[in-house]
Write a structure and sequence with these properties.
This protein is α+β, with helices and mostly antiparallel strands and 128 residues long. It has helices spanning 7-20, 27-30, 71-79, 83-91, 102-109, 114-126, and strands at 33-41, 44-51, 54-57, 65-70, 96-99.
């Protein structure tokens, strides 16, 4: 098990993603780069990017939108697939948005492929 958002976690996620091969990322996600800053993790604030449906450590300079949200909420939304947590987080002010808000609409309507769901399952299994 790797601590969520630790360097070890990002390395394992990268390995799992590479091993998964073609994830059949939906078109709404394939061209999307979304910067995320997770707050309150054991490692402090962690910058990452959802880039073409893949998690990457650090921000992407070309991403038009940045979300700042608590690490536990990030986990619920992106790894556990809890869309209602995202809406609740946004409405309660836990999620701060900078930049192009329309990119979030693309994210909201996108449904992960079966391959992505399988990868998320494996990521959750290695996440402490």
């Amino acid at each position: 098990m790797a601590a969520f958002l630790s360097d070890e976690w990002f390395a394992k996620v990268s390995e799992l993603t590479a091993a998964a091969g073609n994830l059949n990322v939906p078109p709404a996600l394939s061209g999307l780069a979304l910067n995320l800053t997770a707050t309150g993790s054991p490692a402090g604030n962690v910058d990452m990017c959802l880039n073409g449906g893949h998690f990457e450590k650090g921000h992407n300079a070309s991403a038009p939108t940045k979300l700042t949200l608590p690490a536990d909420l990030l986990r619920r939304i992106f790894l556990e697939g809890d869309a209602s947590a995202g809406m609740q987080g946004f409405m309660s002010g836990q999620i701060k948005v900078e930049g192009d808000m329309s990119k979030l609409m693309a994210l909201q309507s996108a449904r992960p492929s079966a391959e992505q769901k399988e990868l998320f399952k494996k990521v959750l299994e290695i996440t402490g």
